[in-house]
């Protein structure tokens, strides 16, 4: 009897108490997911095809866009299934796999933001050595290292989920699987999972944030030493997009951390909504920020849009 319940599928949860309007809630979710796929896909297309964007800064941006696409494609199927079809069941294997990719991509994203801070640090502190330091091969090694760090570091706690018996409730609190949700349903000692998660978050998110802050302190020190006010403004302007993305990412991380910490005092809807903000807001905002703040990307987008306009005009005339 225990083994049958242990192997039973998990049940995902949408917005408790708002099930009757799940179909309406799915509309903004579908719009956000579609926008994330379109804008991040467009960024990847531009960086791949426009040789003026074949620079370290844009290579890192491509990894960021790919990570955001991956996060969207990982969570979108179950979220839309719950909201549109009320399809709540998910097998344990599928749940653990989804959890693995969600947490892996979150770690990769924090690492990419750190690498982009390093890129800006080198570009402003030692501009004459920028191309010799950040060569294509070195950028590829950094990108590969960030991806491997994410995929390897999250493996231990996820693998243990396969070994745990699950004899408690199988109801999860989100429309996707998170490690912290699943481990609480286990009838086993989860001390390793708890401690490992705390150490991993400290070494990736918080240490990464500290290094980013330190790098910008040094960048600001360098910029203030530039005599020309115009050159100072130009140097700082190259950092605006990255700083904005860092703020978007870490503000949502901090918000989610506070909601988890004080969830006894926060309504359930606020807790769930903040979780969705954490997973959807950065992928939604990152390409918009870079499209608005980066002139080279704007110059690449305009021919693409004008090309579409010309094609539409030809089709209309014919």
Automatic annotation (TrEMBL):
Cellular compartments annotated: Cell membrane; Membrane
GO molecular function: G protein-coupled receptor activity; olfactory receptor activity
Any Pfam family hit: 7tm_4
BP GO annotations: cellular response to lipid
Gene Ontology cellular component terms for the protein in this record: plasma membrane
Residues spanning the signal sequence: none
Transmembrane residue ranges: 27-47, 59-80, 100-118, 139-164, 195-219, 239-259, 265-285
CDD domains tied to this protein: 7tmA_OR51-like
InterPro entries in the record: GPCR_Rhodpsn, GPCR_Rhodpsn_7TM, Olfact_rcpt, OR51/52/56-like
Keyword vocabulary terms for this entry: Cell membrane, G-protein coupled receptor, Membrane, Olfaction, Receptor, Sensory transduction, Transducer, Transmembrane, Transmembrane helix
Family to which this protein belongs: Belongs to the G-protein coupled receptor 1 family.
Name of the protein described by the UniProt record: Olfactory receptor
